Amino acid sequence: MSLFNDEEQQRIREAIEAAEKHTSGELRVCVEKTCSEDVLMRAAKYFHQLGMQHTQHRHGVLIYLASVDRKFAIIGDKGINKMVDEDFWDTTKNTMLLHFKQDDLIKGIITGLEIAGDQLKKHFPDHDINKQNQLPNGVAFMDGN
Q1: Biggest CA pair distance of the chain
Q2: What is the DSSP secondary structure assignment for residue 52, as one 8-state letter?
């Protein structure tokens, strides 16, 4: 049984597409059941495993969740990290957490995607309507440890 049903996965995919619409940035959501290490280290591991460091301007953003352990992180690559405020990822995470605490995991993820997408549009605008998507928009389900 998947953490998200088909409709929820579609909502996440559509939120990623909307967030990427006017930016050259790339966003991904990565989910697994458990996280046996520091959550930021785990997110960084999957960031690299998913090839997110290969975006042209190093401006990929990953939302990582460990559903059973109730851990999550949102991280960005070097390009976006240079552009946003130092506390940007923490404040984004706190905003997402408000929804998670209300048992609305999907809304929390979508909120994080929207906030990150707004910053990507601001700092890395892209007006090319024929641009190629560099990374898949679906949720990446990982097998774990």
Answers
A1: 41
A2: G
For the chain, which domains are there? 6-140 (3.10.310.50)
- List CB contacts of 26: < 8 A, sequence separation 6 or more: 20, 52, 55, 59, 60, 61, 133, 134, 135
- pLDDT of 80-122, one tens digit each? 999 999 999 999 999 999 999 999 999 999 999 999 999 999 9
Distance, in Å, from the CA atom of 61 to the CA atom of 41, rounded to the nearest integer, reads 15
- Write the DSSP symbol of residue 23: B
Distance CA 9, CA 25 (A): 20
- Please count the residues of the chain: 145
Q: Which residue has the tokens 């560099």?
A: 134
Which pTM does this prediction carry? 0.93
- Yes or no: say if 95 and 114 are a contact pair by the CB < 8 Å rule: no
Q: Assign 3-state DSSP to the chain and report helix, strand, coil percentages, each to 5.
A: 45, 15, 35
